UniProtKB/TrEMBL annotation, chains A, B:
Its main location: nucleus. One of its GO terms (cellular component) is nucleus. Belongs to the p53 family. The record marks K120 as: Interaction with DNA. This is p53 DNA-binding domain-containing protein.
DNA sequence: CAACAAGTCG
DNA sequence: CGACTTGTTG
């Protein structure tokens, strides 16, 4: 981790990732199997990093439910029930990395950025990158579509997350400047809304969940409006109030995505879509450049040695499918001497995050056990290093 | 004035430049002569934009003396007297533009940036530009030299000011991010020091004067240490804690200078030196570029049509002397129709600032009367526009 | 939108 | 330190 002058909250130490008791529990285990069991079923405090209930279910800890973030707003009594439902969705803890795998689910959940064909570009969508480029504060419309809508209430959660796995666990939050109460973006804005990087001005029932002061991931949840007969399309407008390039503790030029999840009253996930996002001053220019670059990379143009490596977001869900990598399912034996305990500690911390991230992506899949095993190995080394 | 999203305090409306009563006094006058008199001698509240007591004297209004900025610090009783002296120097009001004319005075006041010959450049000085380039937070040493030192106490005041005349009246202050109490630059820093863009960590007796919340210009004053026999050289270390490129209300890439004044107990100016400053991430690169550019401009290379105009700082006090412009002392008759009241208002506001600035530079000189006349004309037009 | 300014990364 | 990124200006 570089120590740049502004980078004072850039990465969370492991001690922030877990409450203290849990950490001790985790690290006092010796065998990897015990750790596996712990992770799957018996983590103290009922907080679970990875669930054991199939591919599409989150388990939330009711005890860390955040009352502050769920202030009463002015509501129709008509909608009280749905809002009550929304309240029951607790904030996601920062350390839980959300899957960014696409999942259409039982209702054929679809999310699409409304294309923009005007000459002036407050925002642009690139299909090949699955990415929207927009200016800060500019509103952009998104359509949500689903089929076979059930009688019960459904919710849509919008969560920004860093695309790169090594910082996906860090909550996306606003920079100091734009979070300032005097900033023009914050006039008349509720205090718990202020800290959110993305807003949904079109939906007055939107709940702004989470509190970054408590190291919680920030997200928006709103109830899907009761469907008119035959209508299955809901349009909402979103707005980023920080740039991708905002300084720490802002996004700091890191690739960012928005994860849209369709959820039921219990937070069970019924669909997931993912959208890469860049908030910048020149959306058109930057889109063109990224597309050109992506094309170049596709055309097998060998990456020039000197060029600085761009932090590439995951290739997303476009036509371009990831080639199944043959080596992704193999074990590799490491035999090496490495100098410097501090280096080792850093490396192991990184490795641990990597496996947490991969686990998030491979829940319920055959490789999950192998990943857990590797995670345990890493944690064992960490434990030995700390003695 | 452009309306960029961050630019929420970029330029002060005229109403901020004067207390309300003074404004009304000013604008209710009709003849230009009366306004002249007002400015010279009888401004209500004893606040004077331009003094009438010769070239080198400031007149401060005791009534706006700021108690907050003069908190007691932990001091030797030895130095109590000198600190008392420093306290008697009231903060300069924001609207008063400081002269940036060099004046060696009766003590041959000299200020020099200690040259840096190391391979690594935390700061670099360009003689031809009379400008230091440095990184934020880096300390750079400055030598103060004077001859024939008197028995009484002397003080040095350090005031940052924008170099361009059209924003020289705006106080130089810190951006929101770096002024935040959690910013690494502010740990253990006294609250009234925090808002200052330039600090003097080497001198514990330095008083941080002024409060930008009250629209006062910020400066540092410290007593010149009692001279050792035969020694006439004092070295102090300074540090900028914002970059030249910091966003509003910071310096916003504007050219900035530091004005060093040698003052007696009553604030009478006994010497003045001026130093252009640029706080950036690549001091060496930027110095080289600016020097190249300056040389090019000197070589008569006609400015290329397409190139964006760079906001040039005044040529400073180097060998390169300003050619006396023949037209500087003539009147010009304007006869034109201009469209748009708002445009006119903007233009007149700008013209007014221009004349205030010029007056600051030409106090006591023959052209002063003509400048006052023009100022009055502009203010008359402004008054008519506001009816 | 092109040219530039200025921070960042390797 | 060079190459690159990304905000700003006209
Ligand atoms: Zn921001
Ligand atoms: Zn700053």
């Amino acid at each position: 981790m570089s120590q740049r002058s502004h980078d004072f909250t850039a990465s969370l130490p492991l001690s922030d990732l877990f409450p203290e008791e849990i950490q001790q529990e985790l690290f006092s285990q010796v065998g990897s199997q015990e750790i596996n069991d712990l992770l799957v079923g018996e983590m103290p405090g009922n907080l679970m990093m990875v669930d054991g209930y199939g591919n599409e279910i989150y388990n939330h800890n009711e005890l860390i439910h955040d009352e502050n973030s769920l202030k009463t707003e002015d509501l129709d009594s008509k909608n009280d029930f749905m809002v009550q439902m929304a309240r029951q969705l607790p904030p996601l803890p920062t350390n839980e990395v959300l899957s960014n795998e696409e999942y259409v689910g039982p209702h054929d959940f679809e999310v699409s950025v409304v294309p923009n064909h005007k000459s002036k570009y407050p925002w642009v969508y690139s299909g090949i990158l699955n990415k929207v480029f927009m200016k800060m504060n500019q509103q952009f419309p998104v359509d949500f579509k689903l089929k076979n809508r059930p009688d019960r209430s459904l919710f849509i959660r919008i969560t920004p997350q860093y695309s790169a796995h090594h910082n996906a666990n860090e909550a996306v939050c606003r920079c100091i400047q734009h979070n300032h109460h005097n900033d023009p973006t914050n006039i008349g804005i509720d205090d718990n809304v202020k800290q959110h990087v993305i807003r949904c001005p079109s939906n007055k029932q939107a709940q702004y969940v989470g509190d970054s002061n408590q190291n919680q991931r920030l997200s928006i949840v709103f109830p899907l409006s009761t469907p008119q007969v035959g209508i299955e399309n809901v349009r909402e407008t979103f707005q980023f109030v920080c740039k991708s390039s905002c300084p720490a503790p802002g996004m700091q030029r890191r690739a960012t995505e928005v994860i849209f999840t369709l959820e039921d009253e219990l937070g069970r996930i019924l669909g997931r879509k993912c959208l890469q996002v860049r908030v910048c001053s020149c959306p058109k220019r930057d889109k063109d450049k990224e597309e050109t670059e992506a094309q170049k990379a596709n055309n097998g143009t060998a990456p020039r040695g000197k060029k600085r490596k761009v932090e590439h977001p995951p290739p997303a869900s476009s036509a371009k499918v990831l080639m199944p990598q043959p080596d992704a399912s193999r074990f590799f034996q490491l035999n090496m001497q490495l100098f410097g305990k501090n280096c080792l500690v850093d490396i192991m911390n990184f490795a641990e995050k990597t496996y947490y991230y991969e686990l998030g992506l491979h829940r319920g899949m055959p490789e999950e056990a192998a990943l857990r095993d590797s995670l345990a190995k890493v944690q064992e080394v960490k434990k030995q290093l700390s003695q």
